[in-house]
Amino acid sequence: MPEDPLPLARFNVLELTLARAGPTAARHLADWGANVLRVEPPKALTSPEDYTGKRFGPDRLNLHRNKRSLTLNLKEPEGKAIFMELVKTADVIVENMRSNVKHRLGIDYESVSKINPRIVYGSISGFGQTGPYKDRAGVDQIVQGMGGMMSITGTPESGPIRVGTAVIDLTAGGFLAQAILIALLEREVTGKGRFVHTSLLESMISLLDFQAARWLMAGEVAGQAGNNHPTSIPSGLFPTADGQILLAAAGDRLWERFCKTAGAEHFLENPDYKTGPDRLAHRDELNEKISEITRTRTSQYWFDLFSEAGVPCGPINTIDKVFADEQVQHLGMALPVTDPRLGPLTMVAQPNNIEGHSKDVRSPPAVLGEHTEEVLRDLGYDADRIADLKSRDIV
Q1: Using one digit for the tens of pLDDT, what is the confidence trace for 315-371?
Q2: Of 255, 258, 246, which is closest to residue 273 (Cα–Cα)?
Q3: Do you find a cis peptide bond into 315, omega within 30 degrees of 0?
Q4: Vertex 77 angle, CA 73 and 78, to 5°
Q5: Residue 105 CA to its chain's centroid (Å)
């Protein structure tokens, strides 16, 4: 039997994005079936690279799968007119330009909602749609610094350290996709669209989570704790006979289970380690005593022993070992796709699972403007008119 249409197959999305955060939001929608049309400047106006590298490099290939591509010069009246024709049948717009750019182009929410009141308009900016920083350019690493992430990453000796992936871009993209879906659900009741937006800065602060709550409610400014958990002890990286292993035995129940499994019942009688706050106060001393025990056996020995006992533990995998892991392979987190230009490729899978639907990559990323003629023909443009638009870099 043919598989049912994907959940978002009825929605048309116009994507006006650069870099990573906006494309990530659109990719979430595209992966679940939305008809995402990526609107890009014509070749003469397009840089072959951006923050995510070359067009057919691994990063951009992974970002722009399951999407179509239309070239359109939105600075020209004819280009803007074509865009507004597409707005009439669109459900969603995704953009991550600086706040003032969409207004300057006349494609902001107020303008497009006059043509299509049902449109859900999703925006990501660096610092917000309003306020003193609204026109500033923002990128992931800058916001990791401004938003507090780097102040709690690393060790007191190392100083601030950035997270090793674009965590803020990816989080903002996920948050915007969530907001778009919420607005689409609301539209089923009201019949009207919404302007929904987030920013890298807001997303970053949300990621601070309990560290932010410690400041807001208890007045505690978190510092850098390295591989130790900031408040839950013992939880961190410990040496073994042949490497290192991560252990997380915080909380009285897991602490007792850890001590009994490790043959360290005497820790349970030590008043310095009786409660969580006690263990936190003596963290360095306790970590060294645990290290003396873990050094005596291999990582695999401890992994097997603690896993059987229900004590959270695990290795430090390089990325190649991540994808070689049997559980990762079982989860299907690497998906094959064949690109007509590049041949067989493997992409990172969508992390969500919806039973009854596969999360295969349906189509590889499009060549710049690959679907321009197709889209224009659907709008009623004939071959001569399309050729004229191309000759003047309108499309």
Answers
A1: 999 999 999 999 999 999 999 999 888 899 999 999 999 999 988 899 999 999 999
A2: 255
A3: no
A4: 70
A5: 28
335's CB contacts (< 8 A; 6+ apart) are: 346, 347, 348, 349, 359, 360, 361
Q: Residues 169, 209, 304, 393: which is the catalytic one? A: 169
Provide the pairing of β-strand 313-314 with 244-248. antiparallel
* 169 in active site: yes
**Regions of the chain short of the pLDDT cut 70:** 1-3, 44-45, 48-49, 51
The DSSP annotation for 22-39 comes to HHHHHHHHHHTT-EEEEE
In this structure, whether the domain defined by 12-207+365-391 belongs to CATH 3.40.50.2300 is answered with: no
Q: Where are the domains of the chain?
A: 12-207+365-391, 235-316
CA atoms within 13 A on the CB side of 248: 10
Question: Options 3.30.360.10, 3.40.50.720, 3.30.1540.10, 1.20.1250.20; which CATH number does 235-316 get?
Answer: 3.30.1540.10
Joined together, the tokens standing for residue 144 give 């990791």
pTM, two decimals, is 0.93
First to last CA, the chain: 40
Instruction: Kindly give, in sequence order, each residue whose CB lies less than 8 Å from that of residue 65, ignoring residues fewer than 6 positions away.
Output: 27, 30, 31, 337, 347, 361, 362, 363, 364, 365
